[in-house]
Design brief:
Layout lengths: L15 H4 L1 H45 L3 E22 L2 E15 L3 E15 L2 E17 L12 E2 L5 E6 L5 E2 L3 E4 L2 E4 L1 E2 L9 E5 L9 E13 L1 E4 L5 E8 L4 E5 L5 E5 L2 E9 L8 E3 L14 E5 L5 H9 L2 H19 L5 H22 L4 H24 L2 H23 L4 H19 L19
Parallel strand pairs: 1-13, 3-14
Antiparallel strand pairs: 1-2, 1-5, 1-6, 2-18, 3-4, 4-12, 6-11, 7-12, 8-9, 8-12, 10-11, 13-19, 14-17, 15-19, 16-17
Helix pairs in contact: 2-3, 2-4, 2-5, 3-5, 4-5, 5-6, 6-7, 7-8
Length: 463
C-alpha cells in the first residue's frame, strides 16, 4: 500500500469503536434508562403507600363522624302467622309435623317526597382531610292500607298488633336528636333498629291495631344525620320526588337514577329527581316467601357523592407514568449534543440528570400534601428545570444550551400538567406529543453520518 491510497477491501476510515460509537452509546443509554426505572418504581410505591394511608384516615374520620349514608324506606311491615307442614324421619317411619311460622309482608308508600339539605365541612387529621356533612332528610307522603289479596300468605293470618313502620339508615350512629314520626294526626317516637333483612340498622315503630288503619295514611319524618363521602336514597314511592340541596361545589350524581334537573355552582348544587316505580327492579308489595325483593340483591338507589377533585395521589400516580418519557427526552438531548456538537458526556452525568428527574416526582408528592396541587407542581417544575438546566450549562459550557434544555423540560412539564387535567383527551394528546418529539429528533439528525461519529474532547464544545 502506497501513502495516501487505500488497499482494496481494507476497512473504512476509523476503527470499529469509532464507526459504531452511536450504537454503543445508545445501548449504554438504554441500560442507564432501565436502571432509572428502579427509583421511579420506588416513588410509585411511596405514592401508593401515602394514598392508602390517606384512604385509611378518611375511613377513620367517616367512622367517627358518620359513614356514607343510605336511606332505605319507609315501608310498612305486616307480620303474618301460618302453619307449615314438614316430614320428619322417625324410627317408626316418616311422620308429618306441623309448626307455626311467622313471615312478613312489605308495603311501600303510594307517594314519597324527600327533601335533603346538606351542610358540608372538611375535617383534617394531620396532612389528610375528608369532606363530611350534616344532612337534614325530610320524608313525607302517604301509605294506602295494605291490600293482602294479591299476596300469597300461605293461609296465614295477620298479626295486627305487630304491624310496624320501618326505615333503614346505613349508619345509625350518625343520627342526631330524637326522630319523631307523624303518622296521620299522631306523633310517635321511633325506636332503634329497622328490623329488615339485610338492613337492620335504622328505626322503627309499632303502629296501632291493624283494623284501625284508615284507607290512606299520611306520614312525615325528619332525620338529622352526620355522614361522609355522600348520601343515597331508595325510590320507594309509587312516585318518588326528591329535592336535594348542598353547599359542596363538586358533586357527582350517581346511582341507578340521574337527576331530572341539576344546577352546580361554586357555592353548591341543587338537584331534583322524579322517579316512577316503573323504573325500579322491585314491586310495591312482596312477602318473605318469594317473588322479587329489595333484600335479595343490590338496591336501586340514587344520590350524590362529594368529590374531592384535587386527588393528589391519583394525579401524582398518573404523572409517574410519564417519567420514562422525561428521562428519555433528557437523554435524547444529551445524545444529540454528543452527536451534533462532538461532545463527550459521561454516563454518570446522564445518571445524575435522570436521577434529578426522578426527584421531581418525589418533590411533587411531598409538596402537594402541604399545599394545593397547582402551586406544588409549579414549584417542583421550577426546582427541577433550574437544577437540570444549570447542570447542563456546566456540562456543555454553554448557558444558551442549558437554557434550551430547561425550556424544553419546562414545556414538557407544562404539557404533562395539561394531560393530568384533560383525562378524556390524555391519550390523543400524549400520542401527538410523542409524535412531535420524535419528528424533532428526526429533523435534527437527518444529515448525521451515523457511521462516522466520534466524540471530541470530553466536556468541550465543538470549535
Amino acid at each position: 500500500m502506497t501513502g495516501g491510497q487505500a488497499t482494496p477491501g481494507a476497512a473504512p476510515r476509523g476503527d470499529f469503536m469509532a464507526r459504531h460509537f452511536a450504537l454503543f452509546k445508545l445501548v449504554l443509554i438504554g441500560i442507564l434508562g432501565l436502571v432509572l426505572l428502579v427509583p421511579v418504581a420506588m416513588v410509585g410505591a411511596l405514592v401508593a403507600d401515602r394514598g392508602a394511608l390517606n384512604d385509611a384516615v378518611v375511613r377513620e374520620i367517616g367512622e367517627s363522624w358518620g359513614a356514607s349514608q343510605l336511606v332505605v324506606g319507609p315501608m310498612l311491615v305486616v307480620p303474618y302467622r301460618f302453619t307449615e307442614t314438614e316430614t320428619v324421619q322417625t324410627p317408626g317411619g316418616v311422620e308429618a309435623k306441623q309448626r307455626m311460622r311467622i313471615e312478613n309482608a312489605y308495603f311501600l308508600p303510594e307517594a314519597l317526597d324527600a327533601t335533603v339539605t346538606l351542610e358540608t365541612r372538611t375535617l383534617r387529621r394531620g396532612l389528610y382531610e375528608a369532606p363530611v356533612y350534616t344532612g337534614t332528610v325530610v320524608l313525607s307522603g302517604s301509605f294506602a292500607k295494605p291490600d293482602l289479596s294479591g299476596l300469597d300468605l300461605r293461609g296465614g293470618t295477620v298479626q295486627g298488633q305487630s304491624v310496624r313502620f320501618s326505615l333503614a339508615v346505613s349508619d345509625l350512629r350518625g343520627v342526631r336528636g330524637r326522630p319523631v314520626l307523624t303518622w296521620g294526626d299522631t306523633e310517635l317516637d321511633l325506636q332503634p333498629a329497622a328490623l329488615l333483612p339485610r338492613y337492620n340498622s335504622g328505626v322503627h315503630v309499632v303502629l296501632s291495631d291493624w283494623d284501625s288503619l284508615p284507607d290512606r295514611i299520611p306520614f312525615s319524618l325528619a332525620l338529622t344525620l352526620n355522614g361522609s363521602a355522600g348520601i343515597r336514597l331508595a325510590p320507594f314511592g309509587r312516585v318518588t320526588r326528591t329535592s336535594m340541596v348542598g353547599d359542596w361545589p363538586d358533586p357527582s350524581f350517581g346511582g341507578r337514577f340521574l337527576p331530572a334537573d341539576r344546577t352546580v355552582t361554586d357555592e353548591g348544587f341543587r338537584a331534583t329527581w322524579d322517579i316512577s316505580f316503573f323504573g325500579r327492579s322491585y314491586p310495591q308489595a312482596w312477602t318473605d316467601a318469594g317473588g322479587p325483593t329489595v333484600f335479595a340483591g343490590s338496591l336501586d338507589s340514587y344520590g350524590v357523592t362529594l368529590l374531592t377533585l384535587v386527588d393528589t395521589y391519583r394525579k401524582v400516580e398518573r404523572a409517574l407514568k410519564y417519567a420514562v418519557l422525561f428521562i428519555a427526552f433528557a437523554f435524547a438531548v444529551f445524545f444529540l449534543f454528543e452527536v451534533l456538537l462532538g461532545l463527550a458526556i459521561h454516563p454518570i452525568q446522564y445518571m445524575l440528570v435522570g436521577a434529578s428527574l426522578c426527584v421531581f416526582f418525589l418533590l411533587l408528592l411531598s409538596l402537594s400534601e402541604l399545599i394545593a396541587f397547582g402551586p406544588a407542581y409549579a414549584l417542583s417544575v421550577l426546582l427541577s428545570i433550574g437544577l437540570v438546566g444549570g447542570y447542563t450549562a456546566c456540562i456543555v459550557h454553554s448557558a444558551r444550551r442549558g437554557g434550551l434544555m430547561a425550556l424544553g423540560l419546562g414545556a414538557g412539564y407544562g404539557y404533562l400538567y395539561g394531560l393530568l387535567h384533560l383525562e378524556d383527551y390524555a391519550l390523543v394528546l400524549g400520542a401527538f406529543g410523542l409524535f412531535v418529539l420524535l419528528a424533532g429528533i428526526m429533523v435534527a439528525t437527518r444529515h448525521v453520518d451515523w457511521y462516522n461519529l466520534a466524540p471530541r474532547t470530553p466536556g468541550r464544545p465543538a470549535p
